[in-house]
Amino acid sequence: MEAMTPEEIVDAFKRKFDADVLDIYAQRKKAGIRGETKRAWVRIALPRFRDAVRFLCTLQDHPHLSVISGQDLGKEVELIYHFSIFYGRKLEEVEVMIAVRLPKEDLVVPTITDMIPGAVVHEREQQDMLGVKVEGIPDPRRIFLPDDFPEGLYPLRLDKTGIPDEHKIVRKAPYPEEK
After folding, report:
1. Is residue 178 assigned to a domain?
2. In CATH, what number is assigned to the domain containing residue 76?
C-alpha cells in the first residue's frame, strides 16, 4: 500500500469509525535536520477496539507494535497501543497510537495476538502492572513480576490495589538519598 500522511490516517479512521472515535488528531514534530516525527492519535470506544487494530492492518500488512503503555486515570485505566506503519521507507514512517479506556470496575480488554502475535509480551505486562485482564491471551502467566509477588497488587495502579508506601517492597527500595 502507498504510504499515507498522519492527516490521511486520521481522516480514514474518522470515516471508518465515526462516533466510535472518542478523540483523534494528527501531530508532526521536527526531528533532525530534514526529518519529522509523524503521529496519528486515535482513542476508540472499547467495543470497536479490535476493529480499529484490524483496520490498521489494512493500511499496512504487519504493523509494528512497539509497546502498550498504560496509565491509571483514577476511575479508568487507559491503554495506548503504539504502532508504527510504513517503516523502512525513507521519511514515510508514521506512528499510530490507538488508545482505549477501561472502567476500573471492568478492567477487561480483548487480546490482539491473533492479528499481532508479538503483542503477547506487552499484554502480559499490562496484566502484571495494572491488573488488566486480557481476554483470550494465549499465555496469561506473569512476565515481569515474580511468582511470589502478592496477588491483587499492581505496581502502576494509584488506588488501593497499588503498592502502598509502607509495603516492604517500597521500604526496602534503594532511594538516592540512602546511598
Report:
1. no
2. 3.30.460.80
DSSP 8-state code for residue 70: E
Cα-based distances in Å from 139 to 132, 157, 179: 14, 22, 39
Nine cell digits for residue 40: 496519528
Tens digit of each residue's pLDDT (9 = 90 or more) over 87-103: 988 889 999 999 999 99
The amino acid occupying position 77 is V
The whole-number average pLDDT for the span 97-116 is 98
The reply to whether 163 falls in a domain is no
Please state the domain count of the chain: 1
Give residue 1's pLDDT: 76
Is residue 81 in a domain?
yes
DSSP symbols for 160-178 = TTS--TTSHHHHTS--GGG
Least reliable range by pLDDT among 21-25, 48-52, 82-86, 87-91: 87-91
Cα–Cα distance measured from residue 14 to residue 11, given in angstroms and rounded to the nearest whole number: 5
For residue 95, the enclosing domain spans: 6-149
